[in-house]
Amino acid sequence: MTLTLTNIAKTFPGGTQALLPTDLEIARGEIVSLLGPSGCGKSTLLRIVAGLEAPDPGAQIRFDGEDVTRQPVEQRRIGMVFQSYALFPNMSVRGNIGYGLKMQKLTKAEVDVRVEEVIALCRLEPYAERPITALSGGQRQRVALARAIAPRPRVLLLDEPLSALDAALRGELRDELAMLLRRFGTTAIFVTHDQNEAMAIADRVAVMNQGQVVQIGTPEALYRKPATGFVARFVGDAMRLQGRVEADQLHLDGGSLPLVGAAEGHATYARAEDIRLNAEGPVAARVETVTFLGTHYRIALSGAAPGPLFALHSGLSAPQPGETVRLSIAPEAILILPEDEVV
Amino acid sequence: MKTPTKLIALIVTLLACAFLLIPIIQSVQAGLTVNYFRGLSSGLTLKWVGEVWELYSGSIFLSIRLALACLAVTLILGVPAAYALARNPGRASRVLEEFTSLPLAIPGLALALALLQLYGTYQGFRTNWSFILVGHVLYTLPFMVRSVLSVLATIDLRSLEEGAASLGARPARRFVDIVVPNALPGILAGALTVVTLSIGEFNLTWMLHTPYLKTLPVGLADSYASMRLEVASAYTLVFFVMIVPLLMAMQWASARAQRNMQ
Amino acid sequence: MTQRHFVMLCLVPLAIFTLAFLALPLARLIMASSESDAGWGIYLQILQTPRYLSTLVQTVAVSLAVTAAALVISTTAGLFLVRNRFTGRNALLSILTLPLAFPGVVVGFMIILLGGRQGLVNQIVPGHLVFAYSVFGLFLGYLYFSIPRVLLTVMAAAEKIDPALEEAARTLGARPHRIILDVLLPALAPALAAAGAIAFATAMGAFGTAFTLATDIDVLPMVIYTEFTLSAKIAMASALSVTLGLVTWIMLLMARSISGQTVAAGG
After folding, report:
1. Hey, is the C-beta of C106 within 8 angstroms of any chain B C-beta?
2. Does C47 touch chain B (CB under 8 A)?
3. B67: buried, middle or exposed (CB in 10 Å: 19+, 13-18, 0-12)?
4. At the topology level of CATH, where does B25-261 sit?
């Protein structure tokens, strides 16, 4: 199903603008992630698509061309995975998964067949008869997904579906979720504040900040060509290189770096993986802390630029805290972006 | 561990128990002995219980009927209202909840006077058992509302309902499928409280009853005033037999509802 | 039908019932209190008529005494039961909460069985000791139904006290009675204030017990009853009811705001 959002905005009763007018088009079968910090309006946008929240007047939501803006949630035929899962504690796993099908007035036999299918797809066979309270977090997450997908919704909406899990499980389920979503082939919107989740799961990522979509594109495009400093910081943790730009040179406290092309009036950023320790490097810095992370060291540096600066260093040994080291950054790895209006 | 503080506490506890229990034992004993003043040596008998049954079985049945009707009404009025209050925790809800809880605070006598003065002149209503029922509902309704509300307050009702709505369930359907089943521990605890309180209610009922409509506690007051001690005791015994299991069930259900919340 | 409409609809039955059988009757009661020759001055009359005034004072005095006694007994027993596990503990707890379901009339009868003309004390103590129909009997009756109510409130609060507090006091060298004074009672203070307010309000409004004991002293509910049924002084009965209702309501409101929980009056 194609999803077309036109002029979606939301002002809360107190006058707070949770969402500025937003347009978005999502193609059939596409998985789009809404990525942003908490309070950026991503959940509000999702809840408006679901029908759980009413947009300000003038908005239009189309499912395959059909205007559903005024339809209540129960008539929109959406599937939703809630942050808290919202599984019904009074029903078993099977009861939860079959509930949406029962609402569609399918016969008992039809419901049973479809529930079986989804249970198999989500590998929930051993738990089918269990009460919800007897499931682990990861199992609950799968049941929530199975319940949302069972009635074959027109669009699947996922509101931070992994955030209730602990870190280890989150990584594992992220990959599984990505695989299942591809297998369903349903158009999906996925809200998260975690860039890794968004990049692992989505075809396209819409980065949101302060109630609006700042940039939308594939994960690669966002990473390589961020449109603003905010996107660069949020996707791939780019660090600001605070210095003086003069023609194609960036003058930092610890030395000067060459840039690709002129960048006057712009802000410059670099990512930790692009900052190299290099005895011949043009910039001097002092090592503050060294953290060993297995495959590499993460080194906190000071003196090169005013803000915090980190470098990833792979190798068999690392410099000691207090040492002075020299750095280099490839000119093409330095992101040249417009100054943020508000930092 | 045997500290003096502990010993004193134990003695106080035992004395309090004795104070509460001894008259209960006396009343059971008096209701079952041939002659209370001659004591147990006069023999045990069910004669007094039989006499109570002859004299007051009508009252007992009226009380049971009232309690069940009261339960039905408080369920119909209280469960949906508790749901609405849980979903709308605004200022207006607080005020309404506070107001419906007034009968917990205002003595039954005052409420009865108020009812009598407004509706006492409608003879058809005044002499009907539904007049007493109104009093009982007034008194027990807050217990039902609070019991259900306290359970609903602990579950994420909004998310559960949004979940059901996203699956295609309309509001009434969500109420039946999601709200009521998840509120059951509270409904059960509330129901047992309502029945227990209705069967024992005296203050309102005494003012509202008519000579033809005597409930169990009204009958008790009657027997205390005019019957011999053995009959009064036997009647009290009958009341205990009814009310004590209800009280135990009520405490069990309330504890269970509270456990569910944790 | 939208969610909002449905939720509103859920309140309609309760709202209608409450309006018809609570709001309007209470309004009628308040109006009725002004319908004597004295008008609203009737409330002043309560304070100026020695009989009513002394009734009011006596009712408050008995209620205060009951509150104090119930607090002492129930706090002692409640703390003991919370802090000790032993066989028979549940039996004691059951006995102490049994009177929760007893109407005031039954409580009155219990006191008659203890201290009436044919009562236990009169049988075993030499000499004529009958106290059921005196102020003391009334006091005991009120105490009988107040003990369980206060006990439950105190125990609920005591169970929530962090045991580490007491352990901390012990590591600092506090003796048991100091722990009670310095740690437990301060932690229980809100619950005690609430339980006390409840006990007081319950005692103020208790009718069944006084009715059964047919006491020789006047308490407010009995006076209301006789004014209404025997003397047909409807305005005065209404005014006294309004006064009584206000006092108990305010007490329970205070109890709620202190402890955040509800326990019913009644009895």
Report:
1. yes
2. no
3. buried
4. MetI-like fold (1.10.3720)
Q: Which of A275, A269, A252 is nearest to A336 (CA)?
A: A269
CATH number of A239-338: 2.40.50.140
- Helix axes of C89-97 and C135-160: crossing angle, nearest 10 degrees: 130
With contact defined as 3+ CB pairs under 8 Å, the chains touching A are B
From start to end of B88-244, where are the E strands?
none
Query: Could you tell me if A141 and A85 are in contact, meaning their C-beta atoms sit under 8 angstroms apart?
Result: yes
Structural domain boundaries in chain C? 1-32, 42-259
User: Given the structure tokens 């005991």, which residue do they identify?
Assistant: C140
Tell me whether residues C26 and B3 touch, CB distance under 8 A.
no
The beta-carbon neighbor of B17 closest among C92, C206, C208 is C92
Measure B49 CA to nearest chain C CA, in Å. 17
Q: Which fold has domain C42-259?
A: MetI-like fold (1.10.3720)
For chain A, which residues make up each domain, given as ranges?
Answer: 3-234, 239-338
User: B117, exposed or middle or buried, with CB in 10 Å at 0-12, 13-18, 19+?
Assistant: buried
- Give residue C122's pLDDT: 80
Three-state SS at C266: coil
pLDDT reading at B189 higher than 80 = yes
Distances (CA, A) of A299 to A270, A288, C45: 15, 7, 87
ipTM: 0.90
CATH level 2 (architecture), domain A3-234:
3-Layer(aba) Sandwich (3.40)
What are the domain boundaries of chain B? 25-261
pLDDT of residue B260: 67
d(CA B71, CA B68): 5
Indicate if the pLDDT at residue C267 is higher than 50. Answer: no
Does B181 contact A at CB distance below 8 Å?
A: yes
A137-149 pLDDT, tens digit per residue, is 999 999 999 999 9
What is the residue whose two structure tokens read 């605004």?
A: B90
The gap from C-alpha C192 to its chain's centroid, in whole angstroms, comes to 13
In angstroms, what separates the C-alpha of A114 from chain B's closest C-alpha?
Answer: 15
Please report which helix (H) or strand (E) contains residue C79, including its range.
Answer: helix C50-83
Average pLDDT taken over every residue of chain C: 88
